[in-house]
Amino acid sequence: MTPAEPAEVRALPRRRLPAVAAIRALRPRQWSKNLLVFAGIVFAAKLGDAVRWGEAIAVFVAYCALSSAAYLVNDLRDREHDRRHPVKRFRPIAHGDLSARAAVTMEVVLTVAAVAIAAWLGWSSLALLLGFGALQLGYSFGLKHIVIVDVLVIGALFVIRAAAGAEAVDVRISPWLLLCTALLALFLALAKRRGELVLVGALETPGRPVLEGYSLELVDQLVTVIAASTVIAYSLYTFTARDSKALMATIPFVIFGVFRYLLLIHRDDLGEEPEQVLLTDLPILVDVCLWAATAAVILALT
């Protein structure tokens, strides 16, 4: 008689240290989205103005703080649903690494800090920040469950970031650039929905309610339309730029970036976490750096 085989032993995930959990809950990788506030000072060719750089950095800090506060609100509200998600169940609040009380305290501190910075920058900056916060709260408490509206809200949040950066440093930003920002945000948001649909279908697990209103076929069509619109809008922006039509030289970088992202979401089913793709894919990182460097040189010389 052979002895019975031992039952499989599975190690339970370790709880993170409170400080580590708090930092992860702030989602620092998402702060890359707020780099958009520097678009105003870059495209206004004010790169040598130290005062404006200080204002731009201040508004960047304010939007990082308010964004993190909004993520904490969202994670507190969705913690039960996140615990059933194959990826989101490891978020600090859903996983039990960060208590609800600690999360609420962090929300309050971050919100007060963001409002104080925006108020110091001026009433217009404060109004934009409050609008940004209200729209994020609306997204967390219902708008994210409405098909199409959910991605439109994400696009609007990116436009506010760009407008806030320009307002903080008192420069004019092209409406074309705001349009390109909105289209690029829609492109990334729809790619994220596609990634979620692929993941939910592969693991046969329940996804967020809004996914029931989408299908892969629909999302692929929308991604195609928005990708083409983004390239066209950026090209028109460079054609009509008052400062320098030499910006047309940056169009190939935009086309490559869009094509590369399309390749990744279709070949590797990436896109559920856009910030992860944008920060880890070497060709995209090199492309963004080349685009930024080329644009900066052109604007500085002209």
What's the topology here?
Layout: H1 18-25, H2 39-43, H3 50-77, H4 79-82, H5 92-95, H6 100-121, H7 123-140, H8 149-168, H9 175-203, H10 216-240, H11 251-267, H12 274-280, H13 282-301
Helix pairs in contact: 3-6, 3-7, 3-8, 6-7, 7-8, 8-9, 9-10, 10-11, 11-13
Separate helix tally: 13
What proportion of the residues is helical, as a percent range? Answer: 55-70%
Under the CATH scheme, which class of the largest domain?
Answer: Mainly Alpha
Rg from alpha-carbon coordinates: 21 Å
Shape: globular
Number of domains: 2
Q: In percent, how much strand structure appears in the residues? A: under 5%
Task: Give the SSE string.
Answer: HHHHHHHHHHHHH
Query: How many angstroms does the end-to-end distance come to?
Result: 87 Å
The name of the CATH architecture of the largest domain is Orthogonal Bundle
- Here the CATH topology of the largest domain equals Tetracycline Repressor, domain 2
Q: Give average pLDDT, whole number.
A: 83
Task: Give structural notes.
The protein has 2 domains: 17-172, UbiA prenyltransferase (Tetracycline Repressor, domain 2, Orthogonal Bundle), CATH 1.10.357.140; 174-302. It is built from 13 helices and no strands. It has helices spanning 18-25, 39-43, 50-77, 79-82, 92-95, 100-121, 123-140, 149-168, 175-203, 216-240, 251-267, 274-280, 282-301. Helix 8 packs antiparallel against helix 9 and helix 10 (216-240) runs antiparallel to helix 11 (251-267). The chain is globular and about 55 Å long. Residues 1-12 have low confidence and may be disordered.
